[in-house]
């Protein structure tokens, strides 16, 4: 994520249900701020445009609501942050397929055993799997991980500790 952002690329995030909220939370922390004042960073939650989501879901398939957006907005060097507590969400798998075709890196946050998503990732991708069966526990760890990622990005891009 640091490399992508420092090279002028962006992070696209996708997920369903509570994971959709995690996408929006992550993008808000990067575009706004996490713990320090800084320039906005390019991150986009693919979960927020109801017109795109409902048009694609209606005209094509719910499984394509994120992959079509990755096709539209994703470029080589961008990162797809993909959330799926089961690791098996069809629309997340489709988005990952498009991201990999576009030479994007994938950071997948899953639970349980990682499911089909864990098997799809390449050696260049990152898989953060919470080895738990309960969705609530998985999402709690995902939220903590989001904050850790935001803090790490801020320190890597802007140096020091936010409290300095």
UniProtKB/TrEMBL annotation:
<dbReference type="GO" id="GO:0016853">
    <property type="term" value="F:isomerase activity"/>
</dbReference>
<feature type="domain" description="SIS">
    <location>
        <begin position="1"/>
        <end position="163"/>
    </location>
</feature>
<protein>
    <submittedName>
        <fullName>Phosphoheptose isomerase</fullName>
        <ecNumber>5.3.1.-</ecNumber>
    </submittedName>
</protein>
<keyword id="KW-0413">Isomerase</keyword>
<dbReference type="GO" id="GO:1901135">
    <property type="term" value="P:carbohydrate derivative metabolic process"/>
</dbReference>
<dbReference type="InterPro" id="IPR001347">
    <property type="entry name" value="SIS_dom"/>
</dbReference>
<dbReference type="InterPro" id="IPR050099">
    <property type="entry name" value="SIS_GmhA/DiaA_subfam"/>
</dbReference>
<dbReference type="GO" id="GO:0097367">
    <property type="term" value="F:carbohydrate derivative binding"/>
</dbReference>
<dbReference type="InterPro" id="IPR046348">
    <property type="entry name" value="SIS_dom_sf"/>
</dbReference>
<dbReference type="InterPro" id="IPR035461">
    <property type="entry name" value="GmhA/DiaA"/>
</dbReference>
<dbReference type="Pfam" id="PF13580">
    <property type="entry name" value="SIS_2"/>
</dbReference>
């Amino acid at each position: 994520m640091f490399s992508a952002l420092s090279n002028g690329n962006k992070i696209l995030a996708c997920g369903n249900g509570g994971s959709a909220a995690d996408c929006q939370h992550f993008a808000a922390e990067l575009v706004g701020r996490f713990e320090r004042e800084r320039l906005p960073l390019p991150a986009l939650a693919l979960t927020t445009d109801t017109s795109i989501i409902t048009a694609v879901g209606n005209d094509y398939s719910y499984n394509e609501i994120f992959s079509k957006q990755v096709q539209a907005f994703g470029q080589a060097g961008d990162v797809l942050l993909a959330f799926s507590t089961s690791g098996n969400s069809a629309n997340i798998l489709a988005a990952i397929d498009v991201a990999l075709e576009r030479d994007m890196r994938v950071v997948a946050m899953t639970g349980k055993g990682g499911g089909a998503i864990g098997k799809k990732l390449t050696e260049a991708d990152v898989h953060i799997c919470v080895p738990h069966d309960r969705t609530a526990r998985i999402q709690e760890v995902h939220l903590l991980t989001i904050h850790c990622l935001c803090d790490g990005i801020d320190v890597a891009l802007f140096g020091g500790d936010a409290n300095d």
